[in-house]
# Entry
Amino acid sequence: MTRDDPQRQLKYNQQTLVCQVQQGKAPGVMFLGGFGSDMTGSKASYLSEFCRQRDQAYVRFDYSGHGQSSGRFIDGTIGQWLDDATEVFDRLTTGPQILVGSSMGGWLMVLLAMRRPKRVAGLVGVAAAPDFTEELIWQTLTPNDRQRLIDEGVIYRSSDYGPEPTPFTLGLIEDGRRHLVLTKPIPFTGAVRLLHGLEDKDVPWQTSQRLGAATTSNDVVISLIKGGDHRLSSPQDLQRLGQAVAEITSLLSG
# Structure
């Protein structure tokens, strides 16, 4: 595949994942998006151009049920999307990788790093949301809503990111419990950079502090951005993202 023909479709387990691949130097960068987002978002697109200018390898993709990939969003779970990310990682990346995870992607990057510890060399979280299904959904439901979720299998919440309400299924919650990472030390010793807005209304900035503290790495930098929201997509925020990737790249390139 040439750099002028970056899009690929990966087929596995009756799924079709749409990915974009840019060839370049190591360490590569792989972007993991948020819950309900796709690879055309501002952070994923910014990193595409950022890596292109640096001649650095870069991969982004849509989880199943997201963007151009197959499947229904409502059927997705953390385990399914982790399997998607693992498939992309194994088939489309080579050598050491820096994982960049936005929101839910910050949870998945940790899980993927634990699955592939020999190849994941650095983590960059942007408003990382590990364990959000338990802490930010289940634990915030009223007793009536919890019972309705158990009885009906799905509840819907209004979203600030689109006109349609977002479905949260019982399967998502139950599967999420099998993938919690903030309940014990996270065995990752590479460089970790976590960006979080102090005005994030979706994921508390304290979550990034807990994530940083949970990793066994001695090289963790947490940047709390005054005025920053959950998206962290302003020009200044994107520049901070690029700086974090460049810093870890420099450490790895020695």
About this structure: The chain has one domain: 7-130+182-253.
